[in-house]
TrEMBL record:
The lineage of its organism: Bacteria, Pseudomonadati, Pseudomonadota, Gammaproteobacteria, Cellvibrionales. Gene3D superfamilies: Mur ligase, C-terminal domain, Mur-like, catalytic domain, NAD(P)-binding Rossmann-like Domain. This is UDP-N-acetylmuramate--L-alanyl-gamma-D-glutamyl-meso-2,6-diaminoheptandioate ligase. InterPro entries: Mpl (IPR005757), Mur-like_cat_sf (IPR036565), Mur_ligase_C (IPR004101), Mur_ligase_C_dom_sf (IPR036615), Mur_ligase_cen (IPR013221), Mur_ligase_N (IPR000713), MurCDEF_pg_biosynth (IPR050061). The keyword Signal does not apply. The gene is mpl. Keywords: ATP-binding, Cell cycle, Cell division, Cell shape, Cell wall biogenesis/degradation, Ligase, Magnesium, Nucleotide-binding, Peptidoglycan synthesis. It comes from Candidatus Seongchinamella marina. It catalyses: UDP-N-acetyl-alpha-D-muramate + L-alanyl-gamma-D-glutamyl-meso-2,6-diaminopimelate + ATP = UDP-N-acetyl-alpha-D-muramoyl-L-alanyl-gamma-D-glutamyl-meso-2,6-diaminopimelate + ADP + phosphate + H(+).
Length: 455
């Protein structure tokens, strides 16, 4: 064994991935979290990782060789205070990843306000399909792999590159630690209002990331995106590769089907590659185009990427079909931002299903709770026929203003009443999409169970 690391905040997707990578490399791994529960707890325990509930000083006794501190931990936490007072060796998750896994690797990083998880999952799958056996660390669980992280058996490593801060003692964005050779910037909007005062502060962190890409590296980004263009204009020393659905980029997609389920990709004057897959929405076409361009940087031909995407099964909680009962489809989606809500609903609407599109939305992210996006929320649901906004406990403002701007919206504050309302009105052919970056009070299972009873 290489030594013992203890992870504070181990049940988050990122830190859980760090735990799996460390265990795979031969470290003894233990961890603490405020809430130890499936599915992450099951995944970790099956890997031989010991989990402890809460943050207690005794969890760090005897002293591990290193404490890896998650960014949800702050001063005043009992484990953090004991760690500092005892002079224990500690680091952050991103720093541990950089030093123990990414060193010497060809790192392919997917960044951006939206689509990081999906794009990194697509990219990892394309490389896997091409026989390149990549390692990866993704903030979700790609269905094609069934786990969020692995070391891999080659020099290629795909990482979801998050702009959120690193730790209480390192306020830089996580992604500045990763030193990518291939960088995807999907988009760049204001988010994480709890740590960034404005979009300029986020652009500054993205430019720190741009500064780390070597001159023989490549940066893939969507053409004519002002916030990204402004960031790159601050200085870029790497090859720039623009993508576009409008046909004016280095890599271009042309829709064959309006819902994005079939599209053609062209690059450099070669034969177009046709992608025919089970996914929909312009945002997914954009994600796929970026993943194909990034994969090409390490030698994967567009036609091979297209073949891989035809088999891509998606990511849990990214428009994941949970079930279909009595002709009603129920989806789970991680949407945490007005743009993500709008693009998900647009993709479902473009499928041309005859039934209604019903959205249940819990604005749960820190930025949403602070009300930063309230002016855009009503418009983000324009493609839905019916919208239920759920008022989370402890939210600093009322969603009533959002509801009042729409003739099809209703405000809910009780999960069981919301389930009853939805069940009373769904009809055969409807699509129900549940949107939250949390558990939403277990509403997914409750709705499916209630529908089964009614069927």
């Amino acid at each position: 064994m290489k030594g013992h690391i203890h992870i504070l905040g181990i049940c988050g997707t990122f830190m859980g991935g760090i735990a799996l990578l460390a265990r795979e490399q031969g470290f003894t791994v233990t961890g603490s979290d405020a809430n130890v529960y499936p599915p992450m707890s099951t995944q970790l325990e099956s890997a031989g990782i010991s989990l402890m509930e809460g943050y207690k000083a005794e969890h760090l006794q005897p002293a591990p060789d290193c404490v890896v501190v998650g960014n949800a931990l702050a001063r005043g936490n009992p484990a953090v205070e004991y760690m500092l007072n005892s002079g224990l060796n500690y680091t952050s998750g991103p720093q541990w990843l950089a030093e123990n896994v990414l060193a010497g690797k060809w790192v392919l990083a997917a960044s951006g306000t939206h689509g990081k998880t999906t794009t990194s999952s697509m990219l990892a799958w394309i490389l896997e399909y091409a026989g390149m056996a990549p390692g990866f660390l993704i903030g979700g669980v790609p269905a094609d792999f069934g786990l969020s992280a692995r070391t891999g058996s080659t020099d290629f490593f795909v990482v979801e590159a998050d702009e959120y801060d690193t730790a209480f003692f390192d306020k830089r964005s996580k992604f500045v630690h990763y030193r990518p050779r291939t960088l995807v910037i999907n988009n760049l909007e204001f988010d994480h209002a709890d740590i960034f005062p404005d979009i300029a502060a986020i652009q500054r962190q993205f430019h720190h990331l741009v500064r780390t890409v070597p001159s023989d590296g490549k940066i893939v980004y969507p053409r004519a995106t002002a916030s990204i263009d402004e960031t790159l204009a601050q200085g870029c020393w790497s090859e720039m590769c623009a993508t576009s659905i409008a046909g004016a980029g280095h890599w271009n997609a042309e829709l064959i089907e309006n819902d994005g389920s079939v599209f053609e990709v062209s690059f450099g004057g070669g034969d177009p590659a046709l992608v025919r897959w089970s996914h929909c929405g312009l945002h997914n076409v954009e994600n796929a185009l970026a993943a194909m361009a990034a994969a090409h940087h390490v030698g994967v031909l567009p036609r091979v990427s297209a073949e891989a995407l035809a088999e891509f099964r998606g990511v849990k909680r990214r428009l994941e079909l949970l079930g279909k009962v009595a002709g009603v489809a129920v989806y789970d989606d991680f949407a945490h931002h007005p743009t993500a809500i709008a693009t998900t609903l647009q993709g479902l609407r473009a499928r041309g299903e005859s039934g209604r599109l019903i959205a249940l939305i819990e604005p749960r992210s820190n930025t949403m709770r602070m009300g930063e996006h309230r002016a855009r929320l009503a418009e983000s649901t324009r493609d839905a026929d019916r919208v239920y906004w759920f008022q989370p406990e402890g939210m600093e403002w009322s969603l009533q203003d959002v509801v009042d701007k729409s003739s099809v919206a209703t405000l809910a504050s009780d999960i069981d009443e919301l389930v009853a309302d939805v069940i009373s009105e769904v009809q055969t052919g409807d699509q129900v999409v549940i949107m939250s970056n949390g558990s939403f009070g277990g509403i997914h299972d409750k709705i499916l169970a209630a529908m089964e009873v009614m069927a």
